[in-house]
Amino acid sequence: MNERHAYIKGTGHFAPEPILTNEDLAKIVDTNDEWITSRTGIKQRHIAPDDMANSDMSFEAARRAMDDAGWKPEDVQALIIGTVTPDFIFPNTAALVADRLGLGKIPCYDFEAGCTGFIYGLIQAKAFIESGMMERIIVIGTDKLSAITNYEDRNTCVLFGDGSGAACIGSEGPGGLLGGIHWGSDGSLGHLLDQPAGGTRNPITHEAIDQKKNTIHMAGGEIMKSAVRAMRDSALKALDEEGLTYKDVNLLISHQANVRIIESTARVLRLDWKDVYVNIDRYGNTSSASIPIAMDEALHNGTIKPGFTVVLAAFGAGLTWGGIVVRWSDES
Ligand code: UT7
Description:
The protein has helices at residues 22-26, 33-40, 54-69, 93-101, 117-130, 154-157, 206-210, 220-241, 259-268, 280-283, 290-300; strands at 7-14, 19-21, 44-46, 78-82, 108-111, 136-144, 162-170, 176-185, 193-194, 217-218, 251-254, 309-316, 320-328. By secondary structure, the chain is an alpha+beta fold. The chain has two domains: 7-174, Thiolase/Chalcone synthase (Peroxisomal Thiolase, Chain A, domain 1), CATH 3.40.47; 179-328, 3-Layer(aba) Sandwich (Peroxisomal Thiolase, Chain A, domain 1), CATH 3.40.47. It has a nine-stranded mixed sheet with strand order 5-4-6-7-1-8-13-12-11, with helices on both faces. The protein has a two-stranded antiparallel sheet with strand order 2-3. A two-stranded antiparallel ribbon has the order 9-10. Helix 3 (54-69) crosses helix 4 (93-101) and helix 8 packs parallel to helix 9 (259-268). The longest helix has 22 residues, at 220-241. It is globular. The chain starts with 6 loop residues before the first strand and ends with a strand. The relative contact order is 0.19. The site of oxa(dethia)-CoA has 21 residues, from helix 2, helix 6 and helix 8.
């Protein structure tokens, strides 16, 4: 029996100041507030200015999480980032953020799991800590999707926003104990949500840029169906691994992609709407940042109370999916 456990010790998030409302978007593409609100639940999103890169947002989110946890730079043994919008293809964004935070020469890397990035990161941190390899790790879910959004495509541009969320994961409680997990992927469906050009399959060319192949392409309807199934299965399997059922859940924090997807997921999980955290109206879909932003809000506005069992569930490009049970200590 593994006696070592991993705990969420502190959280932080950052969303850039400029706000793009549905009314603003209606001036750019053929859309309107009524369509966006009723089909997605989104009212506004934060959009980073051109001179703000992903690492700038991540630095701020991580700094706030370290403050929250009471961690000093020398406490941190690794920093990992889930993102599809790094500052550069290389060097990795995590190393740039760690350098700015003054964390020293610790291991840092980016990984790419679409909107499931933060859950994949928590699972890696849990494994590092439970194995005895490390004691304190920072996990960041972060994306500047506005940098790869086609603002001429109304099917996608109304959905996305920018932001970062971070969590300090440590080996000693109290805090949010990282419990049962489930994660998976299906590359055969990767084409449903992709940025077709810019990698080694379709390098960037003038033609690719003219055809906007360097931006997000998505088969929205098909993604929606897979999303509900993936988040339901992830949540239920993670709960099962922890010896729990839906009846034990105090709060669901799912990826914020579309309020209709969140409603359907809550329904199939038999959860009351009051036990579901929703902030998509204010942020839009921030990809791997959506769960850590929501969790940070829920912890600091009193939604998550001592003793709560919270289930996190996400899906995204890959396709990828994942769920994890977080059990908050009775002591706050
Ligand atoms: O983070 C993970 C990845 N992303 C997601 O999870 C997104 C999953 N998908 C979705 O959220 C939804 O599929 C969308 C919000 C993208 C679209 O909603 P939908 O109910 O699937 O609408 P639709 O694509 O079937 O489009 C319905 C109609 C179409 O018009 P016609 O063909 O019926 O005349 C679209 O052209 O709505 C039209 N439409 C719009 N109208 C006004 C599409 N986008 C817009 C728009 N404003 N922005």
